């Protein structure tokens, strides 16, 4: 079943890849939440706080963006429960997986919001100060960060893994890395029990070659359950919550790419399989392991043996590229860069339905499946599409009146949907 769409809107979408710059370090504004408009933390909302659908007045009132900001208008879709305006654009690309909390990540740090009201609860600053000679457009060491059940986890302080509690400063902790894990650290994700990561070793003073390793840190007591030396540079794939059986890793070795399966509780290597040159992502589930097929599509890999399963590729005359699939309770959803989402039987790969969205997608679009709905974020002007996972029907598209250049992001805590782009984050009802 294919949903109605606006192919013209998709063709007119323009993509902006440069990153939005920062601004002041104020905590931001909460507007339009709960029972109606509230006073801004930096001033009073201009006028009635409601803009015309044209949205041309979506701008700061006052020089330098220090004045009050007007309330955005939802052009379509459900009415937001609340809307948070941050002092600078979000940087969701630093998160390796979707958060399970209302969180606003920017260059200033992570602002944890109250899920009911949208009020700021705690600002987590985890990046060290930039050296005086550090280029302004170069990211600090430490790279991406992980949001666990209760902590923001980062490796931005050299030789340590730091955990910032999302609401309680007394719950913060820092764990020094053991001697064999000294080097450049990258965190890969959590599965509810372990935090997984990898280390590129530094050259040794005695002339011995550096060691590359993968590791698992137990979240309950901050202990390292295992570390394993790897052959070549290896990066664990962000684990799915509750996977707990096989840890998938991508290995780069002598210009070749391999897919490696490890036992999640020991790190023991189970099997390796050659990877296509465009092995850009890998999606794991309870019984699924999905990778690019090398032709723009997606293929299933047997997580026990590494053997090939079904594949779904562009047909003759089609031109599209699959983005990382999303796993549902009994479906595999494959979003494509041409704005089409297809649903597949996880055992056979048979197509159950397709839905064409009124906007295009790109590699930054990270859909989310929850409670019978697939939420698909598009470009700033496109919004977020909500697809019924049983029928493939497009239920609604949520957009706001604010222009922007970033792709929308979506996340959930199980009670609300958090959808945002640029410097705006909305809380939406799930139903």
Overall description:
It is built from 1 helix and 33 strands. Residues 1-26 and 34-66 have low confidence and may be disordered. The longest helix has 5 residues, at 7-11. 1% of the residues lie in helices and 38% in strands. The chain is globular. Strand 9 (160-165) and strand 10 form a beta hairpin. With 431 residues, it is mainly beta. The strands form 8 sheets. It has a 5-stranded antiparallel β-sheet, with no helix packed on it.
Largest sheet: 5 strands, antiparallel
First-residue to last-residue Cα separation = 22 Å
Arrangement of strands in the largest sheet: 1-3-33-32-31
Mean pLDDT: 81
**Morphology call:** globular
Assess the beta-strand content as a share of residues.
35-45%
Give the helix tally: 1
The low-pLDDT segments are 1-26, 34-66
Number of strands: 33
What's the alpha carbon Rg, rounded to whole Å? 22 Å
């Amino acid at each position: 079943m294919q949903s109605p769409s606006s192919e013209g809107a998709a063709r007119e979408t323009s993509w902006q890849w440069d990153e939005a710059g920062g601004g002041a370090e104020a905590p931001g504004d909460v507007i339009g939440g709960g029972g109606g408009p509230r006073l801004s933390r930096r001033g009073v909302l201009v006028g009635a706080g409601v803009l015309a659908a044209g949205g041309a007045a979506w701008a700061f009132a006052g020089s330098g963006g220090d004045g009050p900001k007007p309330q955005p208008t939802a052009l379509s879709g459900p009415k937001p429960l609340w809307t948070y305006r941050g002092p600078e654009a979000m940087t969701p690309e630093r998160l390796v997986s979707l958060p399970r909390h209302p969180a606003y990540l920017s260059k200033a740090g992570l602002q944890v919001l109250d899920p009911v009201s949208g009020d700021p609860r705690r600002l987590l600053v985890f990046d060290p100060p930039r050296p005086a000679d550090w280029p302004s457009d170069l990211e600090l060491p430490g790279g991406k960060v992980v949001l666990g059940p209760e902590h923001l986890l980062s490796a931005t302080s050299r030789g340590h893994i730091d955990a910032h509690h999302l609401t309680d400063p007394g719950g913060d902790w820092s764990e020094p890395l053991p001697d064999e894990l000294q080097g450049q650290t990258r965190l890969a994700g959590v599965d509810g029990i372990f935090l997984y990561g990898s280390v590129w070793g530094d050259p040794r003073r005695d002339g011995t070659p550096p060691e590359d390793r993968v590791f698992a840190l137990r979240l309950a007591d901050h202990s390292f359950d295992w570390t394993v030396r790897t052959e070549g540079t290896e990066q664990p794939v962000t684990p799915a919550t509750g996977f707990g059986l096989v840890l998938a890793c991508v290995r780069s070795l002598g210009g070749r790419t391999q897919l490696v399966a490890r036992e999640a509780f020991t790190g023991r290597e189970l099997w390796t399989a050659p990877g296509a040159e465009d092995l850009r992502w890998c999606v794991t589930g309870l019984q699924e392991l999905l990778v690019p097929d090398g032709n723009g599509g997606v293929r299933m890999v047997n997580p026990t043996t590494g053997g090939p399963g079904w594949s779904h590729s562009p047909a003759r005359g089609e031109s599209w590229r699959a983005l990382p699939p999303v796993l549902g309770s009994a479906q595999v959803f494959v979003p494509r860069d041409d704005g089409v989402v297809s649903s597949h039987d996880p055992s056979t790969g048979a197509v159950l339905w397709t839905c064409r969205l009124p906007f295009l997608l790109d590699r930054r679009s990270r859909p989310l499946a929850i409670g019978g709905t697939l939420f698909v974020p598009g470009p700033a002007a496109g919004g977020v599409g909500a697809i019924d996972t049983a029928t493939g029907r497009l239920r609604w598209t949520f957009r706001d009146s604010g222009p922007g250049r970033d792709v929308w992001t979506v996340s959930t805590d199980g009670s609300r949907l958090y959808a945002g782009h640029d410097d705006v984050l909305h809380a939406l009802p799930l139903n």
